[in-house]
């Protein structure tokens, strides 16, 4: 798979920040930048005032292979046991505060949603509640791009 070129400009404007997206920039790149900025904000534990620096950092992270900062990814199949997945979610939430689950197909998505609901019960006695953000994602499986779902689960603050 070719490395994607990111084609956008970030400029200060009198109303804040303007992001000009040039022809050829894909929606996946834009979503990746937004998610990476959110991760940067969460990991620094503060509200960021310099969004231009955040966007520049996000672009660099994506150019270096799109790796997420301190992110744990669980791949769930239609045959996954939701109780086992829930235990993994709870353990990662307790350790890192955040986990990403990937699922391709209706059965896998069903097991993922059940696992998240079960995990919520596992972490509740510790006073933790969970937030889940679902999104579409493209995953390369056996040299073919497949559309699946990703679920970013994190502690509610």
Explain how this protein is built.
With 157 residues, the chain is of the alpha+beta class. It has two domains: 8-63, no CATH class; 73-155, Translation Initiation Factor IF3 (2-Layer Sandwich), CATH 3.30.110. 41% of the residues lie in helices and 29% in strands. The chain has four helices and six strands. It has helices at 27-44, 51-63, 82-96, 106-123; strands spanning 8-13, 16-21, 73-76, 98-103, 130-141, 144-155. The strands form two sheets. The protein has a four-stranded mixed beta sheet. A hairpin with a 2-residue loop joins strand 1 and strand 2 (16-21).
Please describe the structure with a list of short key phrases separated by commas or semicolons.
157 residues, alpha+beta, Translation Initiation Factor IF3, four-stranded mixed beta sheet, two-stranded antiparallel sheet, 41% helix, 29% strand
Residues in helices, as a percent range: 40-55%
Q: Please report the first level of CATH classification, the CATH class of the largest domain.
A: Alpha Beta
Fourth CATH level, the homologous superfamily of the largest domain: Alba-like domain
Low-pLDDT ranges: none
Q: What is the general shape?
A: flat
- How are the strands ordered across the major sheet? 3-4-6-5
Strand content: 25-35%
Structural class: alpha+beta
Largest sheet: 4 strands, mixed
Order of helices and strands: EEHHEHEHEE
CATH topology of the largest domain: Translation Initiation Factor IF3
